[in-house]
Structure formats: C-alpha cells, structure tokens
Write a structure and sequence with these properties.
The chain is an alpha+beta fold and about 240 residues long. About 15% of the residues lie in helices and about 35% in strands. Strands 1, 2, 3, 4, 5, 6, 7, 8, 9, 10 and 11 form an eleven-stranded mixed sheet that branches. Strand 8 and strand 9 form a beta hairpin. The longest helix is centred in the N-terminal third of the chain and has 10 residues. The radius of gyration is 18 Å and the shape is globular. The protein starts with 15 loop residues before the first strand and ends in a 9-residue tail after the last helix.
Amino acid sequence: MPAIRKIPSRHQPKGFKILYEDRDLIVGDKAPGSLAVAALWNKEDTVHSALNTYVRKGSARSKKCVFVVHRLDQATSGVMIFAKTLQAQIFLKDNWNTTQKIYYAVVHGRLAQKAGTISSHLIEDEDYCVRSTFDSAKGKLSHTAYTVIKETEKFSLLKIDLLTGRKNQIRVHLADLGHPVVGDDKYGKSDPLHKRLALHSQSISFTHPFSGQRLTFTAEVPGYFAGLVGPWASSVHS
C-alpha cells in the first residue's frame, strides 16, 4: 500500500476519515449514520458534499469535485472510495467486478451452516424496499459469501465477502436466512437495546486507475461489535 499522508483532524470532512488520497482518488472510513450520497430526503448533508468542499479548499469559485464510485447504507460504517477525476470513476466502475469487498456483521442467533453463499435475485419495490424474488427477469442475481467467526448465546459474528454489490444486499440476504443484522429494523426486527446497525465495510481491494497497482485499505471494526460478541482473535478490530 502506498504511503499515507496524515491529514489533521480539523481538515477531515464531516463523517468521513480520510485514509488515503492521491491525484486520482480518496479512500476513507465512513462513520455510521453519515449519508454517503444525496437522497430524496437529504441532498446536502452528505459525505459526497463534504468531500466536494474539502477538495475545493474553501474556494467558492473552485469547480473541483469528487465522483461517486459506490455506496454504503447510511447506517453502515467503513471503507469507501471516491474518484477525483471522471476518468478514475469510469475505470473503477468498469473494473468493479475485480474489486474485493470484505464486511463484518453481527447477526441474531446461531447459523446452522457456518460458511456458505447466499444467492437470490433482488428487486426494489415502490417503497424503496429491497427483497428477493423468484422472477429472474425482474431481479438481479446477487451472491453473498459468509463465514461465522464467533458465536455467543444470542449473536453470531460473520465475515462477509460481497461477491455482488446490490443495494441492501447483505441485510436482505441475512434476513432471508433467518438471521438479520443486529440493529436492522428495516429488514430484521426492532431491538430497543441495539439500535445501531452492526454492519461494517472492513476492507476493499482494487486496481488503481492510473498506476495499475493492486491496493488494499482497511477500516477498523468498531468497538461496538466486540461489545456484542466479545473480543475475537483478529487484528482488524479495535
């Protein structure tokens, strides 16, 4: 991984800790609750908007901007990539199938099968809710690979390899399996004791659009996860 330029905390965009930046891209750790890109209910208070302000360095005349490569749900934390040029955005999107995305999730219950791949066709309805469908003509085939890392009486910690990247894919697939993500009141169950979504984008590996170098960046798994399942033998959680 290339050397990381330290950015003082006072210059970090709201809700997004920059992990790496060069002339082509910005990689960072999105905070849970921060909206990544504009939505119908909020078009201004987003990580995307904050990064536009950041690259303009306070100049109202500047036309510099960043380009969206992919998305994370508002409640999901973790590593994200933004492009600083249109060419970089196009390259990253065109080669997205070579990008590896690893997530960690805490789900309700214990899984009978400790590793596997969940596959279904996903479709979004008029209420912006994603669900699995048997109609392959309407849904997009999606695959989520998982491995159980640790179990407690109530919860399981999963390492997830996101093989395709549909909206809400992990949350829908785990709910379909009967083990919704903790804190997911949209696809799972309301839990007043655990309101924060236990889903984190831990690492991303991709080919750099200019150098061609294979890069990997990680964002530490929040301590919230250890609060749910206790510590585990891993070097990636805090």
